[in-house]
Model the fold of this input.
Amino acid sequence: MPQPDTDISRPPAPTRDAQARATLTAVERFNDAMNHHDVDAAMALMTDDCLFENTSPAPDGTPFRGQVAVRAYWAELFRSTPDAHFEAEEVFATGDRCTVRWRYSFNGTRHVRGVDVIRVRDGKIAEKLAYVKG
Done:
């Protein structure tokens, strides 16, 4: 006979599902701001103590911590690649965690593919850890 789920450290399924939906909403809003190259909107969707870990240099990438550092990075990225577009190819979440498989196109015909591992806190992106193929 199957045993009932007795793990009291996990919230019941409806709460977890609601949290995952809220996480997806925050990530979708953030991705939209990125595609509009809207630094203000992107930063409004990140926590004050946010962490963005860039894809380069290999193998670990450069970490940018806090609103000032992350804002400066996004502003330079948008300035240097005005035609850049972020396409989320697959997005899924569980609780406050989200994974986005993406294609980032820039400079006309160039692109890279990668994955972001994201943590959302209080409806905002707290961590965005980026990984790229190749």
Notes: The helical segments are 13-35, 39-44, 66-80.
